[in-house]
Specification:
The chain has 365 residues and is an all-alpha fold. It is 81% helix and 2% strand.
Length: 365
């Protein structure tokens, strides 16, 4: 009986889970990648919840929607236009890295309070040993990665570099050992990793260092930090490109406005010229109509003037003719008088000559 009750409860719970998962799938099917509920960092493949899952700092499930289908839709749409989801991802990663850096500073303060205080010279030597340990760990992690990929020759070269760094580390540890008492040297000196805020020991062996620097936690933080820098660069480039595009559009709008003003001024000038032409035509038509109205009186006036001119010309011609006739008459009279006077003089001369002749004849007789 009890087993039946447990079985029924188990079936009810599984049914609720199935209904919840089905409703969640239906809601996700209705959601698009542009929805605010979708994680933009997931679309760009840099969400810390995905990168650090399964590590010591597993953040659990993200509060926003993660779906590979939505990421595929975003990748297709981003090739056609800029969606600027990088801004949201940059804000998300910056807040996460800021929290990590705060935890690192708090861990450093706790170490400074708990560990034995040492001089600045000894601290510098210990820091040098830590740096060499970090270099060895990174080289070993890289060699393991190359070996897994099949690049055996490159892995062998890196291992040779590891041996050189180990020799340097041995010398640094010797200097550090000689600068402090043996009791203090045996104590584990811890250091906080600047990348992932994990604790590193001064006397950690190579395996421990390789596990840390080649581990998922450390590499995940490196990936997040590198992705953040890459996104910042991308955002800056896109903003510059967008500003240039805005500037170009503004210049084009200004050019269009100038062209519109020019065309408007030209159209206004044409309109004014047309109005002036119309006004001239109106004036001409008015003057023509006035002329037509005045033409009868003017024609009469012209006829009157012509008649007057003809009369005056006839009078002047008559007067000229009369004066010419009178002058001719006077000339004729003058000529006649002159001829008569000559005849008279001739007659007198003839009579005098006849008289003289008679006198001569009488004298002779």
């Amino acid at each position: 009986m009890v087993q039946c009750i447990f079985a029924s409860l188990h079936l009810q719970g599984s049914c609720r889970k199935a209904s919840c998962s089905s409703s969640r799938d239906e809601s996700r099917q209705r959601v698009k990648f542009t929805d605010e509920r979708v994680c933009k960092s997931h679309l760009l493949n840099c969400c810390p919840h995905d990168i650090l899952s399964g590590t010591r700092m597993d953040l659990g499930e993200c509060s926003k929607i993660h779906d590979l289908a939505l990421r595929a839709d975003y990748e297709i749409a981003s090739k056609e236009r800029d969606l600027f989801f990088e801004l949201d991802a940059v804000d998300h990663l910056e807040s996460f890295i800021a929290d990590c850096d705060r935890r690192t500073e708090l861990a450093k303060k706790r170490l400074a309070e708990t560990q034995e205080e040492i001089s600045a010279e000894v601290a510098a030597k210990a820091e040098k040993v830590h740096e060499l340990n970090e270099e060895i760990g990174k080289l070993l992690a890289k060699a393991e990665q190359l070996g897994a990929e099949g690049n055996v020759d490159d892995a062998q070269k890196i291992l040779q570099e590891v041996e050189k760094v180990r020799a340097k580390k041995k010398d640094a540890e010797e200097e550090y050992r000689n600068s402090m008492p043996a009791s203090s040297f045996q104590q584990q000196k811890l250091r906080v990793c600047e990348v992932c805020s994990a604790y590193l020991g001064l006397h950690d062996n190579d395996r421990r260092l390789a596990d840390h620097f080649g581990g998922k936690l450390h590499l995940g933080f490196i990936q997040i930090r590198e992705k953040l820098e890459q996104l910042k660069k991308t955002v800056q480039e896109k903003q510059e490109k967008r500003n240039q595009e805005r500037l170009r559009r503004r210049e084009e709008r200004e050019k269009e406005e100038k062209m519109k003003k020019r065309t408007k001024s030209r159209s206004q000038e044409r309109k004014r010229s047309r109005e002036r032409d119309r006004e001239r035509r109106r004036r001409r038509s008015r003057s023509a109509s006035r002329e037509r109205r005045r033409s009868p009186s003017r024609s009469r006036e012209r006829d009157r003037r012509r008649r007057h001119k003809s009369r005056s010309s006839s009078r002047s011609r008559h007067s000229r003719e009369h004066s010419h006739k009178s002058s001719r008459d006077r000339d004729r009279e003058r000529d006649s008088k002159h001829s008569s006077s000559e005849r008279r003089s001739d007659g007198l001369n003839g009579r005098t000559d006849s008289r003289r002749h008679d006198d001569r004849e009488a004298g002779e007789i």
